[in-house]
Write a sequence for this structure.
């Protein structure tokens, strides 16, 4: 019997090795095939700017804006498309179409429909139109800051000019009240 086991030994060893290899191979996780890379479509060409859009673009304040929380945005004319603007905020860049609104605000509408930059007299704000909230607010260009300071100076000057007139009016009212009081005192029975 020992001879028979000796003869089967190589076959048993080969069989054991095959089972061990098959078990080890079965436990090794197979790599998933790589997902196909998404094909990013080329940006569609922008439609030529209308005369109204070009006029709105001429009103834009180009350059850097200092915003709340020490953030910044940058607005520049789009080098490839007349009448469009490039707006940069953080790591994001947007191509926007300037539109003058009926209120006088200048709207920069993202051609992808994601964001909106509003430029009003004293400040600008960048909004996420899909989420419905502001990305950054209190953005001030140097010309907006100059306009605010100029308007504040005009208001201060008007208040200063009206102060003497208000003081004269107050003095006249006090004199009239004193005259009424004196007249009432003189006509009172003694």
């Amino acid at each position: 019997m020992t001879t028979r086991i000796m003869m089967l030994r190589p076959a048993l060893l080969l069989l054991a090795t095959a089972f061990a290899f098959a078990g080890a191979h079965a436990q090794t996780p197979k790599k998933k095939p790589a997902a196909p890379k998404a094909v990013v479509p080329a940006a569609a060409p922008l439609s030529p700017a209308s005369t109204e859009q070009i006029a709105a673009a001429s009103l834009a304040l180009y350059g850097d804006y200092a915003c709340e929380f020490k953030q910044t945005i940058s607005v520049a004319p789009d080098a490839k498309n007349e009448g469009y603007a490039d707006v940069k905020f953080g790591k994001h860049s947007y191509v926007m179409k300037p539109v003058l609104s009926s209120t006088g605000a200048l709207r920069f509408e993202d051609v992808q429909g994601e964001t909106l930059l509003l430029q009003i007299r004293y400040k600008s704000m960048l909004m996420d139109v899909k989420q419905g909230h502001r990305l950054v607010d209190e953005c001030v260009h140097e010309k907006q800051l100059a306009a605010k300071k100029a308007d504040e100076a005009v208001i201060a000057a008007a208040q200063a000019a009206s102060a003497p007139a208000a003081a004269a009016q107050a003095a006249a009212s006090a004199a009239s009240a004193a005259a009424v009081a004196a007249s009432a005192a003189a006509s009172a029975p003694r």
